[in-house]
Amino acid sequence: xxxxxxxxxxxxxxxxxxxxxxxxxxxxxxxxxxxxxxxxxxxxxxxxxxxxxxxxxxxxxxxxxxxxxxxxxxxxxxxxxxxxxxxxxxxxxxxxxxxxxxxxxxxxxxxxxxxxxxxxxxxxxxxxxxxxxxxxxxxxxxxxxxxxxxxxxxxxxxxxxxxxxxxxxxxxxxxxxxxxxxxxxxxxxxxxxxxxxxxxxxxxxxxxxxxxxxxxxxxxxxxxxxxxxxxxxxxxxxxxxxxxxxxxxxxxxxxxxxxxxxxxxxxxxxxxxxxxxxxxxxxxxxxxxxxxxxxxxxxxxxxxxxxxxxxxxxxxxxxxxxxxxxxxxxxxxxxxxxxxxxxxxxxxxxxxxxxxxxxxxxxxxxxxxxxxxxxxxxxxxxxxxxxxxxxxxxxxxxxxxxxxxx
Length: 406
Description:
Layout: H1 9-22, H2 26-34, E1 37-40, H3 51-62, E2 69-78, E3 84-94, E4 100-107, E5 113-120, H4 134-140, H5 145-148, E6 158-167, E7 175-178, E8 195-203, E9 213-217, E10 237-240, E11 246-249, E12 255-262, E13 269-275, E14 283-286, E15 296-302, E16 308-314, E17 317-323, E18 331-332, E19 340-341, E20 347-348, E21 351-354, E22 358-360, E23 363-370, E24 381-386, E25 394-399
Parallel strand pairs: 7-9
Antiparallel strand pairs: 1-5, 2-3, 2-6, 3-4, 4-5, 6-8, 8-9, 10-11, 11-12, 12-13, 13-14, 15-16, 16-17, 17-18, 19-20, 21-23, 22-23, 23-24, 24-25
Helix pairs in contact: 1-2
């Protein structure tokens, strides 16, 4: 990494923030200087080499922490010959200096090349053994991907998806167990909950018509006792299911969820669904609630069956959406711009990540935080108020990082 005399790393990072805020021509060069590295994988073939070997190549370039944890998801796609067609992985871990780092690894603009963005990760809560990356490697070592896909159409693109330790409820569709010294086997579990580090192999864009093969290494997992139907009743309020889908229940029977419709390319596309039978069945309310946007949903909240909010994040900002007819029509919410001092006479708006609104004294309030790299005033948030059910908002004040999280 080139170091310019007279510019410290801190100053460089502040300059990077300026470029991000204002779209400066320096943006790309500074981003590459501080964060981005690339890895060439021209000779890599998923049939002949392991995914762990691919991460070893990445480690040689950026010195990955050990152990690694999934921060979001792992999604790799390949063609019939075993050549990579796309790659996405968001991982995190603690380095030798005790600093928590994140790494976003994705396709480069250049062929046969990966781009690696990295930075410090203040969110230590994600470092759970449920999100360990190593079970992905252990499971794939027991599989022949070439044999796994041989019955699927030759012209298709195939994928490997991993999101850590998951619960599949009692739905054993496509579930195969490994770890018995032989090949994949099916086990009928009946009323038992299916738990495990799950590696899914799928046909890209065809997961609704061609069932993915879902592999669980039984040596790494413990099956639960039979499920008590009473314990399965949903809790009222906000929750996240085993597939990381955001849900909000108004009652034990009525709820909404942002269902993941497609996650094959690293980003997620969502549909808004509603249940009136405690999640036994779901009905589509809006197949495209975010108006064509993909990303990662950051929240969902309904005040009644008609009025609610939801949000989606992509890169360095998130967008809040509002509905007043149960999700059939959903519109983005805008907030008055708040400018804070940067350096000299320059200002910028660091507040880009809205939380879910909450009600107080018949008025709505919402806090808007900073992106994951934001360091303005120790992570302060902007507080907004609405007196017309969230149609318009006015700026109230700057508040601390823990304020307004609902």
